[in-house]
Protein backbone atom coordinates (compact mmCIF):
# COMPACT_ATOMS: atom_id res chain seq x y z
CA UNK A 1 0.00 0.00 0.00
CA UNK A 2 1.51 3.31 -1.12
CA UNK A 3 1.21 6.46 0.92
CA UNK A 4 -0.48 9.43 -0.84
CA UNK A 5 1.77 12.33 -1.76
CA UNK A 6 0.82 15.88 -0.88
CA UNK A 7 -1.80 17.24 1.53
CA UNK A 8 -4.94 15.27 2.30
CA UNK A 9 -8.27 17.11 2.53
CA UNK A 10 -10.93 15.91 4.99
CA UNK A 11 -14.47 17.06 4.30
CA UNK A 12 -16.18 17.98 7.63
CA UNK A 13 -19.93 18.30 7.73
CA UNK A 14 -20.61 21.58 9.59
CA UNK A 15 -24.33 20.92 9.62
CA UNK A 16 -23.98 18.06 12.14
CA UNK A 17 -25.20 19.03 15.65
CA UNK A 18 -22.50 19.58 18.24
CA UNK A 19 -22.81 19.08 21.97
CA UNK A 20 -22.57 22.15 24.20
CA UNK A 21 -20.75 22.14 27.56
CA UNK A 22 -24.07 22.26 29.43
CA UNK A 23 -25.19 19.08 27.61
CA UNK A 24 -22.02 17.16 28.40
CA UNK A 25 -22.44 14.03 30.52
CA UNK A 26 -21.16 14.09 34.11
CA UNK A 27 -17.50 13.34 34.61
CA UNK A 28 -17.15 9.94 36.32
CA UNK A 29 -15.64 9.93 39.79
CA UNK A 30 -14.32 6.36 40.21
CA UNK A 31 -12.55 7.04 43.51
CA UNK A 32 -15.77 7.94 45.34
CA UNK A 33 -18.41 5.33 46.17
CA UNK A 34 -21.85 5.88 44.76
CA UNK A 35 -24.32 7.41 47.18
CA UNK A 36 -27.98 8.32 46.81
CA UNK A 37 -28.98 11.89 46.19
CA UNK A 38 -29.26 13.84 49.43
CA UNK A 39 -27.56 11.16 51.50
CA UNK A 40 -26.29 13.66 54.07
CA UNK A 41 -29.70 15.19 54.74
CA UNK A 42 -31.43 11.82 54.74
CA UNK A 43 -28.91 10.53 57.28
CA UNK A 44 -29.29 13.67 59.40
CA UNK A 45 -33.08 13.41 59.30
CA UNK A 46 -33.00 9.75 60.26
CA UNK A 47 -30.66 10.44 63.18
CA UNK A 48 -32.80 13.33 64.44
CA UNK A 49 -36.09 11.47 64.02
CA UNK A 50 -35.02 8.22 65.62
CA UNK A 51 -36.42 7.72 69.10
CA UNK A 52 -34.45 5.61 71.57
CA UNK A 53 -36.08 2.40 72.68
CA UNK A 54 -37.82 2.19 76.03
CA UNK A 55 -35.09 -0.09 77.35
CA UNK A 56 -32.42 2.42 76.30
CA UNK A 57 -34.32 5.26 78.02
CA UNK A 58 -34.56 3.22 81.23
CA UNK A 59 -30.86 2.35 81.00
CA UNK A 60 -29.69 5.93 80.53
CA UNK A 61 -32.10 7.12 83.20
CA UNK A 62 -30.62 4.71 85.73
CA UNK A 63 -27.08 5.63 84.67
CA UNK A 64 -27.84 9.34 85.05
CA UNK A 65 -29.43 8.81 88.46
CA UNK A 66 -26.49 6.78 89.76
CA UNK A 67 -23.98 9.30 88.41
CA UNK A 68 -25.94 12.15 89.99
CA UNK A 69 -26.03 10.42 93.37
CA UNK A 70 -22.31 9.53 93.17
CA UNK A 71 -21.31 13.06 92.20
CA UNK A 72 -23.51 14.58 94.92
CA UNK A 73 -22.07 12.32 97.63
CA UNK A 74 -18.52 12.94 96.43
CA UNK A 75 -19.08 16.70 96.45
CA UNK A 76 -20.64 16.54 99.93
CA UNK A 77 -17.81 14.44 101.35
CA UNK A 78 -15.26 16.72 99.72
CA UNK A 79 -16.89 19.87 101.12
CA UNK A 80 -17.39 18.52 104.67
CA UNK A 81 -13.86 17.10 104.76
CA UNK A 82 -12.46 20.41 103.57
CA UNK A 83 -14.47 22.28 106.21
CA UNK A 84 -12.97 20.01 108.89
CA UNK A 85 -9.40 20.56 107.64
CA UNK A 86 -9.49 24.17 106.40
CA UNK A 87 -12.74 25.82 107.53
CA UNK A 88 -12.50 29.02 105.44
CA UNK A 89 -11.68 27.16 102.24
CA UNK A 90 -14.35 24.55 102.98
CA UNK A 91 -17.03 27.21 103.39
CA UNK A 92 -15.94 28.83 100.13
CA UNK A 93 -16.22 25.52 98.26
CA UNK A 94 -19.63 24.91 99.88
CA UNK A 95 -20.79 28.31 98.63
CA UNK A 96 -19.60 27.44 95.12
CA UNK A 97 -21.52 24.16 95.20
CA UNK A 98 -24.64 26.00 96.37
CA UNK A 99 -24.22 28.51 93.53
CA UNK A 100 -23.91 25.65 91.03
CA UNK A 101 -27.12 24.09 92.35
CA UNK A 102 -28.87 27.45 92.05
CA UNK A 103 -27.74 27.77 88.42
CA UNK A 104 -28.99 24.26 87.68
CA UNK A 105 -32.37 25.12 89.19
CA UNK A 106 -32.59 28.27 87.05
CA UNK A 107 -31.73 26.23 83.93
CA UNK A 108 -34.43 23.70 84.80
CA UNK A 109 -36.99 26.50 85.26
CA UNK A 110 -36.03 28.01 81.90
CA UNK A 111 -36.39 24.63 80.19
CA UNK A 112 -39.86 24.18 81.72
CA UNK A 113 -40.82 27.69 80.59
CA UNK A 114 -39.58 26.86 77.09
CA UNK A 115 -41.75 23.75 76.99
CA UNK A 116 -44.70 25.86 78.17
CA UNK A 117 -44.14 28.38 75.34
CA UNK A 118 -43.99 25.62 72.75
CA UNK A 119 -47.15 24.12 74.21
CA UNK A 120 -48.87 27.51 73.99
CA UNK A 121 -48.03 27.85 70.30
CA UNK A 122 -49.26 24.30 69.66
CA UNK A 123 -52.51 25.03 71.51
CA UNK A 124 -53.09 28.16 69.40
CA UNK A 125 -52.55 26.13 66.24
CA UNK A 126 -55.11 23.50 67.35
CA UNK A 127 -57.61 26.21 68.26
CA UNK A 128 -57.21 27.76 64.80
CA UNK A 129 -57.88 24.42 63.13
CA UNK A 130 -61.00 23.92 65.25
CA UNK A 131 -62.30 27.45 64.57
CA UNK A 132 -61.80 27.06 60.82
CA UNK A 133 -63.38 23.61 60.76
CA UNK A 134 -66.50 24.79 62.60
CA UNK A 135 -66.54 28.36 61.23
CA UNK A 136 -66.69 29.54 64.85
CA UNK A 137 -66.43 33.34 64.80
CA UNK A 138 -66.36 33.85 68.62
CA UNK A 139 -63.53 31.30 68.88
CA UNK A 140 -61.66 33.04 66.06
CA UNK A 141 -62.02 36.41 67.81
CA UNK A 142 -60.76 34.97 71.08
CA UNK A 143 -57.83 33.41 69.21
CA UNK A 144 -57.05 36.75 67.57
CA UNK A 145 -57.00 38.44 70.98
CA UNK A 146 -54.57 35.82 72.26
CA UNK A 147 -52.31 36.29 69.24
CA UNK A 148 -52.28 40.06 69.73
CA UNK A 149 -51.37 39.50 73.39
CA UNK A 150 -48.65 37.03 72.36
CA UNK A 151 -46.96 39.57 70.06
CA UNK A 152 -47.63 42.62 72.19
CA UNK A 153 -44.47 44.60 72.71
CA UNK A 154 -42.75 43.31 69.56
CA UNK A 155 -41.79 46.17 67.29
CA UNK A 156 -41.96 44.09 64.11
CA UNK A 157 -45.70 43.48 64.66
CA UNK A 158 -46.70 46.95 65.88
CA UNK A 159 -47.93 48.19 62.51
CA UNK A 160 -49.78 44.93 61.84
CA UNK A 161 -51.49 45.02 65.24
CA UNK A 162 -52.69 48.55 64.53
CA UNK A 163 -54.13 47.59 61.14
CA UNK A 164 -55.72 44.46 62.60
CA UNK A 165 -57.45 46.52 65.31
CA UNK A 166 -58.85 48.83 62.62
CA UNK A 167 -60.21 46.09 60.35
CA UNK A 168 -61.19 43.17 62.57
CA UNK A 169 -64.66 44.60 63.26
CA UNK A 170 -65.55 44.27 59.58
CA UNK A 171 -64.97 40.50 59.47
CA UNK A 172 -68.04 38.32 59.99
CA UNK A 173 -66.73 34.78 59.61
CA UNK A 174 -63.87 32.86 61.11
CA UNK A 175 -61.93 32.22 57.92
CA UNK A 176 -61.72 35.88 56.83
CA UNK A 177 -60.85 37.05 60.36
CA UNK A 178 -58.03 34.52 60.68
CA UNK A 179 -56.85 35.32 57.15
CA UNK A 180 -56.68 39.00 58.12
CA UNK A 181 -54.83 38.10 61.33
CA UNK A 182 -52.38 35.99 59.35
CA UNK A 183 -51.76 38.74 56.80
CA UNK A 184 -51.25 41.53 59.35
CA UNK A 185 -49.47 39.76 62.20
CA UNK A 186 -47.56 36.88 60.65
CA UNK A 187 -46.35 38.32 57.33
CA UNK A 188 -43.21 39.97 58.79
CA UNK A 189 -42.55 36.87 60.90
CA UNK A 190 -42.87 34.63 57.84
CA UNK A 191 -40.36 36.81 55.99
CA UNK A 192 -37.87 36.54 58.86
CA UNK A 193 -38.35 32.76 59.06
CA UNK A 194 -37.80 32.42 55.31
CA UNK A 195 -34.50 34.26 55.61
CA UNK A 196 -33.39 31.71 58.19
CA UNK A 197 -34.40 28.85 55.88
CA UNK A 198 -32.56 30.34 52.91
CA UNK A 199 -29.42 30.90 54.98
CA UNK A 200 -29.42 27.34 56.30
CA UNK A 201 -30.01 25.88 52.82
CA UNK A 202 -27.15 27.95 51.42
CA UNK A 203 -24.79 26.86 54.20
CA UNK A 204 -25.58 23.16 53.86
CA UNK A 205 -25.26 23.28 50.07
CA UNK A 206 -21.92 25.11 50.19
CA UNK A 207 -20.37 22.76 52.76
CA UNK A 208 -21.57 19.67 50.89
CA UNK A 209 -20.16 20.95 47.60
CA UNK A 210 -16.84 22.32 48.85
CA UNK A 211 -15.82 20.16 51.84
CA UNK A 212 -14.91 16.58 50.80
CA UNK A 213 -14.35 15.31 54.36
CA UNK A 214 -16.31 12.22 55.33
CA UNK A 215 -19.33 12.89 57.60
CA UNK A 216 -18.65 16.65 57.48
CA UNK A 217 -21.79 17.26 55.41
CA UNK A 218 -23.89 15.15 57.80
CA UNK A 219 -22.63 17.03 60.87
CA UNK A 220 -23.11 20.43 59.24
CA UNK A 221 -26.57 19.48 57.93
CA UNK A 222 -27.73 18.29 61.35
CA UNK A 223 -26.33 21.28 63.27
CA UNK A 224 -27.58 23.80 60.70
CA UNK A 225 -31.09 22.33 60.76
CA UNK A 226 -31.25 22.27 64.56
CA UNK A 227 -30.11 25.90 64.69
CA UNK A 228 -32.58 26.88 61.95
CA UNK A 229 -35.52 25.20 63.71
CA UNK A 230 -34.64 26.89 67.01
CA UNK A 231 -34.47 30.32 65.38
CA UNK A 232 -37.76 29.79 63.56
CA UNK A 233 -39.38 28.89 66.89
CA UNK A 234 -37.96 32.07 68.42
CA UNK A 235 -39.32 34.17 65.54
CA UNK A 236 -42.85 32.88 66.09
CA UNK A 237 -42.68 33.39 69.84
CA UNK A 238 -41.93 29.83 70.94
CA UNK A 239 -38.42 30.38 72.28
CA UNK A 240 -37.09 26.97 73.20
CA UNK A 241 -34.30 25.81 75.44
CA UNK A 242 -31.84 23.04 74.69
CA UNK A 243 -34.21 20.17 75.45
CA UNK A 244 -37.09 21.99 73.77
CA UNK A 245 -35.03 22.49 70.61
CA UNK A 246 -34.14 18.82 70.46
CA UNK A 247 -37.75 17.81 70.98
CA UNK A 248 -38.93 20.25 68.31
CA UNK A 249 -36.26 19.06 65.89
CA UNK A 250 -37.25 15.45 66.43
CA UNK A 251 -40.92 16.30 65.82
CA UNK A 252 -40.10 18.06 62.54
CA UNK A 253 -37.77 15.33 61.32
CA UNK A 254 -40.22 12.60 62.29
CA UNK A 255 -42.89 14.29 60.22
CA UNK A 256 -40.57 14.57 57.23
CA UNK A 257 -39.44 10.95 57.42
CA UNK A 258 -43.01 9.70 57.88
CA UNK A 259 -44.28 11.63 54.85
CA UNK A 260 -41.31 10.73 52.66
CA UNK A 261 -40.33 14.37 52.18
CA UNK A 262 -36.60 13.66 52.56
CA UNK A 263 -36.28 12.49 49.00
CA UNK A 264 -35.90 14.56 45.86
CA UNK A 265 -35.18 13.76 42.26
CA UNK A 266 -32.97 15.19 39.57
CA UNK A 267 -35.73 17.67 38.64
CA UNK A 268 -34.73 19.71 41.69
CA UNK A 269 -31.19 20.06 40.38
CA UNK A 270 -32.37 21.06 36.94
CA UNK A 271 -34.85 23.59 38.32
CA UNK A 272 -32.30 25.25 40.60
CA UNK A 273 -29.01 24.90 38.80
CA UNK A 274 -30.55 25.11 35.33
CA UNK A 275 -27.70 24.79 32.86
CA UNK A 276 -25.03 25.15 35.51
CA UNK A 277 -21.91 23.40 34.31
CA UNK A 278 -20.70 22.88 37.89
CA UNK A 279 -23.68 20.74 38.89
CA UNK A 280 -23.19 18.58 35.79
CA UNK A 281 -19.42 18.21 35.98
CA UNK A 282 -19.11 17.54 39.72
CA UNK A 283 -21.35 15.20 41.62
CA UNK A 284 -20.47 17.07 44.83
CA UNK A 285 -22.15 20.23 43.54
CA UNK A 286 -25.24 18.27 42.53
CA UNK A 287 -25.30 16.71 46.00
CA UNK A 288 -25.01 20.18 47.49
CA UNK A 289 -28.08 21.35 45.58
CA UNK A 290 -30.09 18.35 46.79
CA UNK A 291 -29.03 18.78 50.42
CA UNK A 292 -29.91 22.46 50.21
CA UNK A 293 -33.33 21.51 48.84
CA UNK A 294 -33.92 19.07 51.68
CA UNK A 295 -32.89 21.71 54.21
CA UNK A 296 -35.47 24.04 52.67
CA UNK A 297 -38.12 21.34 53.11
CA UNK A 298 -37.14 20.97 56.75
CA UNK A 299 -37.44 24.75 57.14
CA UNK A 300 -40.94 24.86 55.66
CA UNK A 301 -42.01 21.98 57.91
CA UNK A 302 -40.56 23.84 60.91
CA UNK A 303 -42.55 26.94 59.96
CA UNK A 304 -45.72 24.84 59.85
CA UNK A 305 -44.97 23.34 63.27
CA UNK A 306 -43.90 26.58 64.99
CA UNK A 307 -46.49 28.90 63.42
CA UNK A 308 -49.48 29.70 65.68
CA UNK A 309 -51.80 29.71 62.64
CA UNK A 310 -51.91 27.20 59.79
CA UNK A 311 -51.00 28.49 56.35
CA UNK A 312 -54.04 29.61 54.40
CA UNK A 313 -54.49 28.68 50.75
CA UNK A 314 -51.64 29.99 48.63
CA UNK A 315 -49.62 31.25 51.60
CA UNK A 316 -47.44 28.19 52.18
CA UNK A 317 -43.89 28.90 50.97
CA UNK A 318 -42.81 27.07 47.83
CA UNK A 319 -39.73 24.96 48.39
CA UNK A 320 -38.62 25.40 44.78
CA UNK A 321 -38.73 29.18 45.11
CA UNK A 322 -36.78 29.09 48.38
CA UNK A 323 -34.08 26.94 46.81
CA UNK A 324 -33.82 29.16 43.75
CA UNK A 325 -33.45 32.29 45.88
CA UNK A 326 -30.97 30.70 48.28
CA UNK A 327 -28.74 28.95 45.75
CA UNK A 328 -28.96 31.15 42.66
CA UNK A 329 -25.72 32.94 43.56
CA UNK A 330 -24.02 29.80 44.80
CA UNK A 331 -24.57 27.82 41.60
CA UNK A 332 -24.40 30.33 38.73
CA UNK A 333 -25.67 29.15 35.40
TrEMBL record:
<keyword id="KW-1133">Transmembrane helix</keyword>
<keyword id="KW-0472">Membrane</keyword>
<dbReference type="GO" id="GO:0005886">
    <property type="term" value="C:plasma membrane"/>
</dbReference>
<feature type="region of interest" description="Disordered">
    <location>
        <begin position="1"/>
        <end position="38"/>
    </location>
</feature>
<feature type="transmembrane region" description="Helical">
    <location>
        <begin position="88"/>
        <end position="109"/>
    </location>
</feature>
<protein>
    <submittedName>
        <fullName>Putative membrane protein</fullName>
    </submittedName>
</protein>
<dbReference type="InterPro" id="IPR006507">
    <property type="entry name" value="UPF0283"/>
</dbReference>
<dbReference type="Pfam" id="PF05128">
    <property type="entry name" value="DUF697"/>
</dbReference>
<keyword id="KW-0997">Cell inner membrane</keyword>
<dbReference type="InterPro" id="IPR021147">
    <property type="entry name" value="DUF697"/>
</dbReference>
<feature type="transmembrane region" description="Helical">
    <location>
        <begin position="58"/>
        <end position="76"/>
    </location>
</feature>
<comment type="similarity">
    <text>Belongs to the UPF0283 family.</text>
</comment>
<keyword id="KW-1003">Cell membrane</keyword>
<keyword id="KW-0812">Transmembrane</keyword>
Amino acid sequence: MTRPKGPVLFDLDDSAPRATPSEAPPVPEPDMPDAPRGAAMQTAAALAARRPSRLARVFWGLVGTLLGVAISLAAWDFATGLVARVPMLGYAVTALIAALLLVLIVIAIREMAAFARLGRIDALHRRADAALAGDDLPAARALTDDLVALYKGREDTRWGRTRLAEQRGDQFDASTLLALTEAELLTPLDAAALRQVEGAARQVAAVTALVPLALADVIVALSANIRMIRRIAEIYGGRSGTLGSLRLTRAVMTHLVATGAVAVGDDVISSVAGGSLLSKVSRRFGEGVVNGALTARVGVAAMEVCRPLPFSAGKRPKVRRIITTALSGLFPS
